[in-house]
Write a structure and sequence with these properties.
The protein is built from seven helices and three strands, in the order H-H-E-E-E-H-H-H-H-H. It is mainly alpha-helical. The chain has a domain of 161 residues. A three-stranded mixed sheet has the order 1-3-2.
Length: 233
């Protein structure tokens, strides 16, 4: 008896749940950012100026700040030492924009201080990318050849993507925590504005939580479908 390709059975509910969570988190962060992007900061500082101020205040002088295309595409690259702010963040003086810019600066501070989870995440990236792209082909080959060892290898490869998602969580939460502390100490936002920025950063963090849960559910589904089978002899 062969393995079969039971990709559309009852376990699909796990994938659907993950998709719904991810879409809900994405919609929530967009709506939250949009809401507080309408609230202009009292100090009228742009996201770019806020980022430059924060980096200087933390004695980080080897990180560049640039504007990139897109919406909520903000990121920090530890390899190139470049902090990239999306158009919606770079030129805006809103509470949301300053909060997001400060969050990315939080990653730069992590990098400067040698924050271990950030280094671990950077080390995992190549392996996780290979694992996530090769997992399903390996599993399919294992199913075709009815070789459990290959299926198990595919499951292990897919689990690397989950490992990356899990390691990402403390990195993101810590960056937000650092951002809020820096904003409070530097006076870039008022006491009334800080809770608003916190809501934006919490909403953004929830997208990473949703991504981790979605990946875990996908892995669980694959294990339920293929993890307990034995080779046909």
């Amino acid at each position: 008896m062969g393995y079969g390709f039971g990709f559309f059975d009852g376990t699909m509910i796990l994938v659907i749940i993950g998709m719904v969570l991810s879409m809900a988190a994405s919609a929530y962060v967009k709506s939250t950012f949009s809401k507080y992007d309408q609230v202009k900061s009292r100090n009228q500082v742009t996201g770019t100026k806020a980022a430059q101020y924060i980096l200087n205040s933390q004695n980080i002088h080897n990180v560049g700040v640039q504007q990139i295309a897109g919406d909520l595409t903000d990121n920090y690259n530890s390899g190139t030492k470049m902090l990239s702010l999306s158009e919606a963040t770079a030129q805006s003086t809103s509470v949301a924009a300053i909060g997001v810019a400060a969050h990315e600066c939080g990653h730069a501070v992590q990098d400067a201080k040698g924050y271990f989870p950030l280094r671990l995440r950077a080390a995992i990236v190549p392996v996780a990318n290979i694992g996530s792209s090769m997992a399903m082909p390996i599993i399919l080959i294992g199913l075709f050849l009815q070789t459990q060892a290959l299926i198990q290898l595919g499951l292990i490869a897919f689990s690397l993507a989950l490992l990356f998602q899990i390691v990402t969580l403390p990195v993101e939460f810590n960056a937000s925590s650092r951002a809020l502390s820096i904003l409070a100490e530097g006076g870039l936002l008022t006491e009334e504005e800080l809770p608003q920025a916190r809501k934006v950063l919490i909403a953004a963090a929830l997208t990473y939580v949703a991504a981790a849960i979605s990946t875990a559910l996908q892995l669980l589904r694959l294990v339920l479908l293929f993890g307990g089978r034995n080779d046909d002899r």
